[in-house]
Amino acid sequence: MKTVLFDLHKSLGGKMTDFHGWDLPIQFEGIVSEHLHVRSQAGIFDVSHMGEIVVKGPQSTEFLQYILTADVKNSYANQKAVYAILLNEEGKTVDDLIVYGIGPSEYLLVVNASNIQKDFDRINSLKEGFDVSVENKSDTFAQIAVQGPKSQEVLQPLCDFDLSALKFFRFKNNASVNGTDCLISRTGYTGEDGFEIYCDPVGAKGIWTALLENPIVKPIGLGARDTLRFEACLPLYGQELDETISPLEANLSAFVHLNKGDFVGKDALEEPKRMLIGLEMEGRSIPRTGFLVYDDHKEIGIVTTGNFCPSLNGVYAICLVEKKEYGDDEFEIMIRNKPMKAKRANMPFYNKKYRK
Amino acid sequence: MIPKHLYYTKEHEWIKVTDEGLYVGITHYAQDQLGDIVYVELPEVGDEFEASEAVSVVESVKTASDIYMPVKGSVKAVNHALENQPELINSDCYTNYIFVIQQEDNDLEGLLSADEYTKYIEELDQ
Questions:
Q1: ipTM of the predicted assembly exceeds 0.85
Q2: B interface mutation test: which of A27, A32, A313 has the most B CBs within 10 A?
Q3: Are A35 and A26 in contact (CB under 8 A)?
Q4: How far, in Å, are A55, A81, A229 from residue A41 at the CA level?
Q5: Are A97 and A116 in contact, with CB atoms under 8 Å apart?
C-alpha cells in the first residue's frame, strides 16, 4: 500500500521499504544525519500508515473506560490526548494507542499500522451491551509528524492559531494548517518537542510541501524514527510490547489507572515477574532484538531493542528480564555466540525535551 | 562508479591484487544498502579461512552483514582505522579496505571482473 505522499518521497530520494504492507521511506539522506537533524532542528515524518478508529455513541466514554487501561473521561473537556493500552483477557497487550476525545461522546483512537484489523475486531467483540458504534476510518486520514526543537517555529506560519497555547499532550480539533482542516496535537515519538497532524489525505501533500519550503525542515524516514524513539525509550509494539507482555512488565504502570473502575484485563494483571532494563554495551557490536541477556553468566531475558544511539555515540539495549535487584556491571549479551559485556544504563537513554 | 582495476564477488566485496596481498573491502552497492555503518568486527591477523567462509561482520544501524573470504588464504593485516571510524566505509568504500589476505596460491577463480559485476548489480536492481 502507498500513502498519499509516496510520489513525494520518491522524488526526495527516499529509499523505500516494506513496513507491514506499506511502502514507506526507511531513509532519505541517512539515518544518523536525519536523527541528529531532528534532535537539533526540525524533521517531518509521513506516518499516514497509522490506523484511526472512531468510537462514538451515548456510551462511548463508559465503553472506552471499560476496554482501555487509562482514564479517558476528561479527554474531550480538557482537549487532552491520552496514551492507553488495549489489553486481552490475560492482561497482556493487544496494542498501545492514543485517544482523542473529539466530541462529548466521540473518540478518535490512533493505533499501530500492524494492528488495525486486530484492534478493530477486538474492540467490536467487546461492544455488546454498550450503545456505541466502531468505525475503521484509517483510509480517510493522513498523518504528518513535525518533530524537533524548532517544530513550533516551522509549523506556526502554516497555522491559524497560536501553537504556544498547545501544551504537551494537548490537542486542537478543527484547526487549519495550510488551509486544510486538521486535528493537531503536541505529541510525538522522538523524545523532542513536536506535533502530530491528522488530516484528510487530499490536504496532506500541501502541508508536507509547505513545511519543506523552510530550509530548516528535512524529511525523515522510518530508520531515524526508530533510533529516535529507541534513544528516548518509547516502546515499540512488537518489541517492547506484544500479546505476551503486560504493560506493568513494560514499565507502563503510569498508563494503567487501577483506580478508575473495572476494565478488561484488570483482574489478570499480576505483580510483574519481568521488567525492562537499559544496558549500555562496552563495545560497538549491536545487540539485536531477541538476543539473550545474562547476569553473572545466568540467562535472565532477551533484548527487545538494541542499537547505536547517534545522540549519545554509544550502543544501548532495552532488555526484558526477570524482575529482581541487579548490580550495575555484571551483564553480558550474546552476540554471534560471543558474550559481550554491558553495564546498567538509566532509561530513557536520552533525556526527553518536551515542552510541558 | 565501479573501479575497473578491481575484482568483485556476488557478495559485494571488492578485491585489489597487490604484491603485499589481496586487499578486500565492500562495494558502493553494499555500503549504500547497509546505510550508516557503526561497527566493523575485524578478523584476527593470522587466522586461516577457506573461500566463502565468513571472516568479518559489518554492522549498520539497520542490519548486520557478514563479509566472506573471497579466496582461500590467511589474514595478513586488518584496517585498524575502522575500529574507531567505521563510517570511513560509507565515505570512501574503495579506499577503506577491511583486511588483507595472504594467498597460498594465485588462484582468482570465481571472482568477477568489473564488467561482470556491473552487469550483476544491474540485474539485481531490475
A1: yes
A2: A32
A3: no
A4: 36, 25, 16
A5: no
Residues of A in contact with B61 (CB under 8 A): 31-32, 223, 227, 307-308, 310
Is residue A105 assigned to a domain? yes
Chain B residues with at least one Cβ partner in A under 8 Å: 35-36, 38-39, 41, 57, 59, 61-62, 64, 86
A20, amino acid identity: H
Cell numbers placing A348: 530513557
> Among candidates B69, B56, B65, which has minimal Cα distance to B29?
B65
Q: What CATH number should be reported for the domain whose range is B7-125?
A: 2.40.50.100
Q: Where are the domains of chain B?
A: 7-125
Question: How many domains is chain A built from?
Answer: 3
Overall residue count recorded for chain A in this entry: 356
Is residue A352 domain-resident?
no
| A338-356 burial: b if 16+ Cβ within 10 Å, else e | eebebebbeebbbebeeee
Note whether A34 and A182 are same-domain residues.
yes
Q: What is the pLDDT of residues A31-41, one digit of tens each?
A: 999 999 999 99
Which 8-state DSSP code applies to residue B113?
Answer: P
Low-confidence stretches of chain A (pLDDT beneath 50):
none
Shortest alpha-carbon distance between residue B84 and chain A (Å): 9
For testing contact with chain A, the best of B33, B38, B89 (most A CBs within 10 A): B38
Report chain A residues whose CB lies below 8 A from the CB of B35: 26-27, 30-31, 223
Q: Is the predicted pLDDT of residue B126 greater than 80, yes or no? A: no
Q: What is the reported pTM?
A: 0.95
Please report whether residue A354 resides in a domain: no
CB contact under 8 A, B35 and A30: yes
pLDDT digits (tens, 9 = 90+) for B41-73: 999 999 999 999 999 999 999 999 999 999 999
